[in-house]
């Protein structure tokens, strides 16, 4: 099914529990040469971030 374009997927920091919409401005972005872009938690600077559907 489709039509959920406005539904934001939440990303969550597994380290501190911070949550914000995935790809949102709340998150910091790191560019790692070998891994590409990573999402970094602005609260604890962890990159252990998972995205919920
Ligand atoms: Zn965090």
**Helices and strands: which structural class?**
mainly beta
Average pLDDT rating: 88
List the bound ligands.
zinc ion
State the separation between the terminal residues, measured CA to CA: 14 Å
Radius of gyration computed on alpha carbons? 12 Å
Strand order of the largest sheet: 2-1-5
- Proportion of residues in β-strands: 35-45%
Strands, total number: 5
Q: What does this entry look like structurally?
A:
This protein has no helices and 5 strands. With 53 residues, it is mainly beta. The protein has a domain at 10-43. The strands form 2 sheets. Strands 2-1-5 form a 3-stranded antiparallel beta sheet, with no helix packed on it. It has a two-stranded antiparallel sheet with strand order 3-4. Strand 1 (10-13) and strand 2 (19-21) form a beta hairpin. Bound molecules: zinc ion (ZN). Zinc ion is lined by residues 13, 15-16, 18, 41, 43-44, 46.
Write the layout of secondary structure elements.
Elements: E1 10-13, E2 19-21, E3 28-32, E4 36-40, E5 49-51
Antiparallel strand pairs: 1-2, 1-5, 3-4
The chain binds zinc ion (ZN).
Zinc ion (ZN) is lined by residues 13, 15-16, 18, 41, 43-44, 46.
